[in-house]
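Course exercise 7: structure representation. Students receive a sequence record and must write out the corresponding structure in token form. The form below is the worked example handed out in class, using Catabolite control protein A (344 residues). Read each field label carefully; the graders check that inputs and outputs are placed in the correct fields and that the protein name is recorded exactly as given.

STUDENT ID: A-19
EXERCISE PROTEIN: Catabolite control protein A
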Amino acid sequence: MSAPAARVTIKDVAAAAGVSKGAVSLAFNHRPGLSEGTRARIFAVAQEMGWAPNSSARSLSTQKTDTIGLALCRPARLLGLEPFYMEFISGIESVLAEQSCSLLLRLVSSRREEIDVQRSWWRERQVAGSVLVDFDRDDPRIEPLKELGIPAVAVAHPDLTGGLPAVWTDDAHAMTEAVRYLAALGHRRIARVGGPVALGHSAIREQAFRRTLESLGLDGSVQMATGFAGEDGARATRSLLLHCDRPTAIVYDNDIMAVAGLGVAAEMGITVPDDLSLLAWDDSQLCRLTHPTLSAMSHDVHGFGTAVARALFDVVEGRDLASRPMSTPSLTPRASTAAPRVRP
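STUDENT ANSWER:
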């Protein structure tokens, strides 16, 4: 039996390319100090010899990793159904693929567990930095993670992030546009089905909703759901439609709840959009698959994830990062909104 082929090492690659081991390390860690011609020769020799740097060894030598973290305080079942996070994560992954990096995703049951997970990731050098999402109005993660020193980007309005670099959308402006649109159609009783009351972006939308109704002299009500699942949206919608002065239009905090609301309207014999207009948020494919199709506040969620990942790399590399506003969600009217058949 022939002896197994010797394993190719960084020393072998350096010798074949006519450079030092340090030059090979510089090339594969994308660091300055080499001409483009030398860098290209090293890559070509390494490919021909079938050699690639060991990621664990590279992490130890550079004190960095090729992984970023994302902890989500969501049930696993809901995450698989929610279009927003599927699109958002795909946007992050598109940037990580460019950088030959990976995403470490962890589902947690509480903010306390998330803090513990972030501490473990950072102390064990499992991640180079983290994306933080779903900020509460007084978020308990801010101070512990600042003390830890982990590079992080917050996906939230800067008012909620305690000075952490933020990438955000102007939900208040979008909600104002949504309410004004429904009012222009002739609706005078407008309701909102929001997510969990503690979430900062839910609070921002609620404040804008109430402020806009007041400025227009309209009646409105808010039904906060316990989560973002379809059953939460259905329960909240049913409660609103059983009211003696039921609304003629409802704005939802996500697509899943809006689809569930459409089902409740059908169940109760209420015609959309003649008797009730429905307006979703984020505008996933779900909105175009229902009958009638759902009007929505459209948002480039994939692009949002891309921007967040790029911002995190800026933070990891030590570049200054001011908070970055993304484009505001904009109205996409479809068949689920119209002037009420009977004016309120």
